[in-house]
Specification:
By secondary structure, the protein is mainly alpha-helical. It contains four helices and no strands. The protein is about 65% helix and about 0% strand.
Length: about 100
């Protein structure tokens, strides 16, 4: 009986510690959780192209340079989010791959 009370007491104590030390406030949203309409303002074409290339390089680095896999993933994401820009799709692919590698 004493052992059960000890275990129950420890469980309540650890639960209280977890409750009072949890982070306060809202969690930050990733780019994939932000609606397309609320994303950044349109950028000039030259900057937009360089940003797109940057995301493409990041995604390719995560895919270890597999261009075919990147194109397949782009096509699949484009079917799910048909109005998204190529840059946004590359961001989604990069974030999905980074999340899945954790």
């Amino acid at each position: 009986m004493g052992t059960i009370l000890l275990i129950l007491g420890l469980a309540i104590f650890l639960g209280a510690i977890m409750f009072f030390t949890r982070p306060k406030g809202k969690a930050k949203k990733t780019i994939s959780q932000i609606p397309l309409a609320k994303q950044r303002e349109p950028v000039p074409a030259k900057t937009k192209q360089s940003a797109e290339r940057q995301w493409e390089r990041k995604a390719l680095a995560q895919l270890r340079g597999d261009h075919a896999a990147l194109e397949r993933l782009l096509n699949a994401k484009a079917k799910k989010v048909p109005r998204a820009s190529r840059e946004y799709l590359l961001q989604l692919i990069y974030e999905d791959h980074v999340r899945d590698q954790r």
